[in-house]
Each structure stands twice: as structure tokens, then as C-alpha cells.
Design goal:
There is one protein chain. The chain has 26 helices and 20 strands. By secondary structure, the protein is α+β, with helices and mostly antiparallel strands. The protein has a five-stranded antiparallel β-sheet, covered by helices on one side. It has a four-stranded antiparallel β-sheet with strand order 15-17-18-16, sandwiched between helices. A hairpin with a 5-residue loop joins strand 17 and strand 18. Helix 12 packs across helix 15, helix 20 crosses helix 21 and helix 23 runs parallel beside helix 26. The longest helix is centred in the middle third of the chain and has 25 residues. It is flat, with a radius of gyration of 36 Å. The two termini are about 55 Å apart.
Amino acid sequence: MSSKNLLVELFVEELPPKALKKLGEVFAQTLAASLKNTGLAASTAAVTAYASPRRLAAHVTEVAAVAADKPVVQKLMPVAVGLDAAGNATPALLKKLAALGADASCVPNLRRENDGKADVLFYESLAKGATLSEGLQKALEAALAALPIPKVMTYQLQDGWTSVNFVRPAHGLVALHGSDVVPLAILGLNSGRETHGHRFEAVVDPVVFANADEYATKLATDGAVIASFAERRAEIARQLAAAAARAGGKPIDDDALLDEVTALVERPNVLIGQFEEEFLAVPQECLILTMKANQKYFPLLDAAGKLTNKFLVVSNISPEDASAVIGGNERVVRPRLADAKFFFDQDRKKSLESRVIGLSKVVYHNKLGTQGERVQRVAAIARAIGEHLGGGELTHHAEQAAVLAKADLLTDMVGEFPELQGIMGRYYALHDGLAADVADAIEDHYKPRFAGDSLPRGLVGTVVALADKLETLVGMFGIGQIPTGDRDPFALRRHALGTIRMLAEGNLDLPLNSLLTVACSAFAAVEGFKSADSELADFIYDRLAGSLREQGYTAQEVDAVVSQRPQRLGDIPKRLAAVRAFAALPEAAALAAANKRVSNILKKVENPVEPTVDNALLKEAPEIALHDALVDVVPQADAAFVTGDYAESLQALAALRAPVDAFFDGVMVNADDPALRANRLGLLAKLHVAMNKVADISKLSA
């Protein structure tokens, strides 16, 4: 059956820019998937999505005018119900066939098949394939229903009576199969071959398509619109780079801003603007944020990454003389920058320290008190960590930074731009004459803010960041705010991963349980707080295990190490490397299996078994040999463990394979004599301790 290419476009008023890319992708993919499911589009059909501020469109190749007929098999009823003793159709069968559009004449051709319980009658027929107009109508309705619309609008159609719901009012519908219009109706529109191009720069209006394949080209030449989101984005990136080169700088790298601007223009034209150099006295983060967030400009940086007084505007019009457009944008940005300068100047009239008292009036959580109370808890935790890691200046600076870390929340600049919290605190701390590592810690205590974010740049910042995250984790778990399913309103998973990264990548000598105990003690005065250290430790180790698997370690390797709950997370990479090296040894599989057997034996004993052995009760040669091997191997393994050479510690265990195998082959552990039995269990407990210091190697057993 011959096929042609299909084009569908819905012409609308300006779509929400942050959602446009996704809207375009979902519209095209859902439309094409529906056509493929009905057999109208080939499984190999190529789908091209188009999305501009005023249109969603899809081009689909290999679409048939009518889908091929499909064989349909329908289960009717058991033979005993459908046919009488003479083999004639019962009234029940005739009624069922009539509902399917068949009659008694097809009874001899019904298929009989046993379904495992009884012989059943099946009716085989040929379902006529859907026509394109039917199938495309359903596909279009499905595509609109699937759109991830941020907020639906209700608007009246031209008849003045009918109301419809959609993301924005729709004004045109194009549906072309080759050169033929496919009759469709949706949102009060009937399909045709006409659309509208650029609001101001279209060469002709309306733009008329002769066939589906000329859509993008005709829209570009006659309508002055680059319909493809991807092509428009690439063109903006090209123009940004060229304009930046002419201006002697480089545009700021921001994919989200590039996507948003792509969704705001139909034919981009990048222009260069500038502002007075005096504004550069304001921290560049403030200027960059106001230009990006409020104006959608691309600030220009110099070769060193420092902000210049030039910026790039992505305009939607291309006049011969662009000076008016450039001048207008320069006039618009100036008050924004002046506001930023005003906030910065005003904020510096008060020290950060003078603002701390105001935090006592800011509610943090109704069960955990104010931000002021929270700051005191963070400072107490930071002080304890600082003392453990070195005391002296580290403790003093960490406590000072912790007290001041949230003070910039009360500044005008952060009030206007919450994204700058911490960043502005650093600038104001330096202005107040505080030490550089204290200022850096005020900014860095939020880090890492997301996966892949940088860690705090110094030890003071690390201490404060740890204290801040631990306070949040311990506090929320202590009042029962534990994440469930996808719900994590306080970002506790992110805080746990940040804590893990700082402890592991910083290789800090901070046992996790001790940290949780210290953090918990900071909540002693909080009414209703109940320590949940055990649940929180489980939560952190679960996050750790997931993170390690994402890094490429196998589930067995991760389980072997994490199940031991190592307290120094900085040791974990070395433990994992040791486990991987051990698993490659020829003795590994047998020892892992033996360790698993030992674990199972010890679990069945009612009371904990002490790893002690009475030499006088060693009777059998294999148990004597195993004990002698442990006496020889354990000191070697322990010495390597103490020095942190975990690979050597595990590899020393390889010498135990033969005596362990011989023990299980020749010794009855559960001897009738209670003393013998207890001694042999003690020997196994000693073996178990020796084999599981670095990792639980039984986890390596299949």
C-alpha cells in the first residue's frame, strides 16, 4: 500500500517558554506513536518535532491513507455452552455472534481450542483498517491530552458560546498527507493548509503549504520562522558565539537560559548592548543573575571569566537599523542594575554579626524553632567537629562561620534574589574584615547543592557544611519527617549524599556514628525531639550504597563493604578496591562460600558466640590445623588492616582456604559434648571475625 508523509501543525498564541521544548517533543512523539499503533504509520516512520513560540507541529514519514486490515481472534464461550448435543448453535452463541456482526452461517468455521480448562469456541474475523482521517483525529486528541501543560486556560470560541480548555488559545490547524488536506476538527478548528508566520517579518500572510514536506522550508522563506526548536537553538548559539567574538568576550554558559530564549523567538537576531562600567563594582553574581532572570540577556565575560559591561540580547526582530532595539534594551537593564547596586550599598551599612539577632524572629520549623535557634545548633555541631579535627583556629573559625552563615538571609539583596544566599554572605563577610576562610565557609556551607556540585573549598567550609547538613538530617528525622517514596520536601536525600561526599572524598577521620551522636546532642533542649540515629544511619548507608553502584561497583562488592557499616567513609574506596582484588583470587569463591556457611551456623546459635578457643579441647586434626592457620594468618591480616592496607589484609586470608575446607569435611561442629561444641563454635567465631574485618566476603558468594 502506497504511503505519503504527514504534517500536522497547531497554531496557537504564545506558549509558556519554559515548557515549550517538552511540549513539542511530547506532541510529536504521542501523535506518531498513536499512528503506529493503529497501523497507519510504518514502524520505521521517522518523526520530526517542531516547536516555536506560536506553534506545535510534527512531520511523520511513511503514513498510509488506510491502515491494513487486521485479523482478529475473539474468545466466545465454552463449546458445551455454545453448541447443543447435535452440534447446533445455542441461543447464547447466536446472541454473542450477532453482537459481533455475524450469524449462524459462521458456526461451522468457529475454531475450537482448549484453554486448559475446557474446549472453547473462538471467532476469527478481519477488522477493517482505520482511515487516516479517523486515526489522525484520535492521534491528535491523544497528543493534546498527553501534553505536560503547566496551567490550562479556558477560553471562548468565535461563536461566543462554546468554551474549550487548552494551554493557550488555538487559532489554526494544518493537516497534510502529501498534498492532500486531512479533514480534522479540534478546539473549534477545522484543518487546512494555511498558517501564519512571524508576527512582524513574514513575507506573506497566510503561509500556504502545497505539501507536507515543504513545511519547514516554506515557513522559513515565506513566514520568517525557524520552526525546529533544535535548529533555532543552534542558530542562537552560533550567533551568540559570533557576537561575543566581535565584542571581545564570551557569553555565559547557561543551557536553561538558552532553551528559554529559544522558546521566546521565532527568528533570532543577536545584538550587543552595554551598560555603565560603574555597575561592575557590584558583585558580578548579582549583575549576572538580574540580567539572566529578569531580562533573559547573556552577560559577556572576559577571558578570565570576569564580567564585562557588555551583554547579548536575542531579539525576535531584525530591523535594518538595530540601534533603537539595542538602546531600548540598554534603558531597560539600567534600572535593574541600579537596584542591585542600591541593595549592595545598603546591605554593607550593617555588619553580618548585627543581623544574627534578627534570625530569632524567622521561623525555621514549627517543631524545631527559629533560624536563630537552628544557627546555635549548627554552631555547636561545627565546634565539636572542629575540635575533633584539630581544634584551635579551625574550631574558632568554623563556629564563627556557622553563626554568621544564615545572616545574609536578612539582607535586601538575598531578599530580592534568594539564589544568592551564601554568595552574598561571603562578600559581606569580607567587607566586615573577617578571615578569608570564614567568608568562604559562609558561601560554601550550602555545598554540595546538587549531584556533581563542587565541595567546600577549605576545611572550615567543610566543617560548617557538615554541621549544617547533619543538623537538618538529625532534626528532621528526630521529628518524624522521614522521606517516603518520591516525597522529600526537605531534600534529605541530597543532604545525605552531600554528607557522604564530604566524608568520603575529604577522607575525614570522623566516625559516622559519633557525628550523629554529636548532632543529636545539639537538640537536647528541643521539646518533642526523639533521637532517630539508627534510622538515619540506615538512610545514609542506603544512599551510600546507591551512589557506589552508580559509580560502577557491582551490587556484591557494594553489599560486602557497606553491610559492615564502616565508620570512616573515606576508607570505602580502598575497601572496595580490596574486595575487587580479593574476588579475583582463585581461593575467593571457596572462602566466600565458607564464610556464608559460618555465618549461617553462628546465626542459629541462641546466644552470641565469643571468638575464644581452648587449645586443650581441640581434638581433631582439621580443627587443630585451622586453629594453627588462624594463629599464623590473623596477625598478618590485622597488621595490614591497621595500616589501611585492606588489599593485603584480605589477600592474607587466601591461606585459610585449605584448612577451612578440611575443617568442614572432617569436623562435626555440633558435637554431642557441649564443651567440644562450644569450643568449635568459638573457633568458627574467631574465623568469622578474621574474615570480615575489611568486608563481609560472604556477600561475594553466588
